[in-house]
Amino acid sequence: MLQTNLEHIESEEQLKELIENNEKVAVCCGRMGPMCIPVYDIFEIFREKYSDIQFRDMDFDTPAAAIIKGLPECRKFWGLPYTIYYRNGKVVKATSSIQSAKEVKSVIDDVFA
Amino acid sequence: MSESMQKYDVIIIGAGPAGLAAAIYTSRAVLSTLVIDESSAGGQVKTTGQVANYPGFVEPIAGHELAGNMRKQAEKYGTKFKLAADITTLHLSDQEKWVELDDEDRYTTKSVIIATGSSPRLLNIPGEQEYKGSGVSYCATCDAEFYKDKDIFVIGGGNSAMEESLLLLQFVKSITVIHQFDELQAEKITADKVTINPKVGILWSHEPRAFYKKENKIVVEAENLKTNKRIRLERDGVFIFVGLVPNSALVKNTPIQLTKYGYIITNPQMETNIRGVYAAGDIRDKRHRQITIAVGDGTIAALEIIHKV
Question: Based on the number of CB atoms within 10 Å of its own CB, is B281 exposed (0-12), middle (13-18) or buried (19 or more)?
C-alpha cells in the first residue's frame, strides 16, 4: 500500500475509466522506495500547478499493475518507478526510474501542451 | 522583469533536514520564512529507507516519514514553501539579496540560508542518461529483483557500492565490480563480505567511459587507468554508486566562496563570506555528513539570524 497523498489506482477498471474520461492523465507505478518517493512528491506538487492533469499513483506489487507492466512502452524498463502519461486514452510517454521535477515538467510541457 | 516582488525575513534554499530545521526555528521566532527547493521537501532523507540513528525514535523511522514530519512542523509554525521551483536568478551581496523563480516572481530578504545538500554523483558518460531505468540503475533496493539470476556490473568501491552489492548478491548470478583504484575504499568489514563471495569479480584500476546497448545486454566500455587501453564488457545491467557531489551549481555564479570540491566555506556560525548569507547541511565544507549534523547546522544558522534581528 502506497503511503502518499495521491489518489491510488487499485484496479485495471479504475485506470481504464480514468483515461477514458480524462484527456490528460499521469500515473506513477512504483513502491515506497528511494527512486519512487521523489516522483510521487513531485506529482503532489504538480497536482496543484496543473489542475487539468489527473495525477495518480499505483502500487507496483498489486495485480492491477499488470496493465502498466504489460504496456509495450514498458517492455524494456528495469527500474522503478514506471511513469506513464496518457492523452486521450493513449500512452504518449513512459519513463523508467527516478525523474527530477525538471524532467517531469519537461515531459508535461512536451506531451500535454 | 519580475511579475511581483515579495519580501521575507529569511529565505532558505533547500528543503532537506538543514533547511527545515532552520525554518522551524526562524518561523517559531516569528520571522517570515520562505523555503525554496527545486524538488520536493526532505532532501536525501526522503529517499532513505529507514533511519535508525536519529535521536528520539526508539524504532527506526522511514526516511520519507521523518522528512514529512519536519516539513509539517515547519508549516505548523508558518513557513511558506515554493517546491519544484526553478530558481532562475540568485543575487547575493552584502547589501541586497533576492531570488527569482521561473514564474518570474521575485523574493527579497536580508538573510539567506543555503541548504541545497548533495546528490548522488553521476558518471556523466555517454549512455548513462539514455539507459537509466533500462539497464542503468542507482538503487539496489528498487531494482535488484529485475536482475534476478543475471550478470551485472557495480561501478564504485566505496561504502555505498559495497553495501548495495551485498543486497544485489541476494538476487544476481554475478557481479563485476569496476573500480578506479587498486583497493576498495569501503570499510574493510563490508568490503570483505563482498569480495569473499564467489559470485564477485573485480576489475581494478578501470573507469567506465561509455555505455552501449547490444540487444538486451548493456556493454560497458572501460579504460585501464594505468595503460589507457579500453575494453568492452557485456552484462545484463549496471548499478552505479560513486559517491556524492555538492549541489552548488546555483551559487557558482555568486560571490560565495567554495572549496575546490564545490562545498561552501563557512565559519562555525555557518556564516559565509557574504554578510547575511549562511550555509547549512551537506553543502557546507565539513568532515562528517549526517542528518543530525545537518539539523544542527540549520539550527545554528537560524539562531544567528534570530539573534541579529
Answer: buried
Q: Which residues of chain A have pLDDT under 50?
A: none
Which residues in chain A have their CB less than 8 angstroms from residue B40's CB? Answer: 38, 41-42, 44-45, 101
The reported pLDDT for the residue numbered B5 is 85
Cβ-nearest to A80 among B46, B48, B142: B142
Question: Mind listing the pLDDT tens digit for each residue in A93-111?
Answer: 999 998 999 999 999 999 9
For the cut 70, the answer to whether the pLDDT of residue B80 exceeds it is yes
Closest alpha carbon to B306 in B30, B113, B115, B55:
B30
pLDDT band, residue B61 (cuts 50/70/90):
very high
Is the pLDDT reported for residue B49 higher than 90?
A: no
Taking only residues 22 to 51 of chain A, the set having a beta carbon closer than 8 angstroms to any beta carbon of chain B reads: 30-38, 41-42, 44-46, 49
pLDDT, mean of residues B218-235: 97
Cα angle for residues A108, A76, A64 (degrees, 5° grid): 75
- Cβ neighbours for B135, distance < 8 A, ≥ 6 positions apart: A78, B211, B213, B218, B236, B237, B238
The CATH T-level fold of domain B136-240 is FAD/NAD(P)-binding domain (3.50.50)
* CATH fold for the domain made of B4-120+245-308: FAD/NAD(P)-binding domain (3.50.50)
For residue B134, give the nearest of A76, A100, A101 by CB distance. Answer: A76
Interface of chain B toward chain A, CB-CB under 8 angstroms: 38-42, 46-49, 62-65, 83-84, 86, 132-139, 141-143, 146-147, 216, 237
CA angle B107, B109, B114 (to 5 degrees): 90
Closest residue to A96, CB basis, from B64, B134, B141: B134
Nearest chain A residue (CA) to B236: A78
- Evaluate the omega torsion of the peptide bond into residue A63 and state whether it is cis, within 30 degrees of 0: no
Task: Decide whether B4-120+245-308 matches B136-240 in CATH topology.
Answer: yes
pLDDT digits (tens, 9 = 90+) for B172-213: 999 999 999 999 999 899 999 999 999 999 999 999 999 999
Residues 81-100 of A with CB under 8 A from B: 95-98, 100
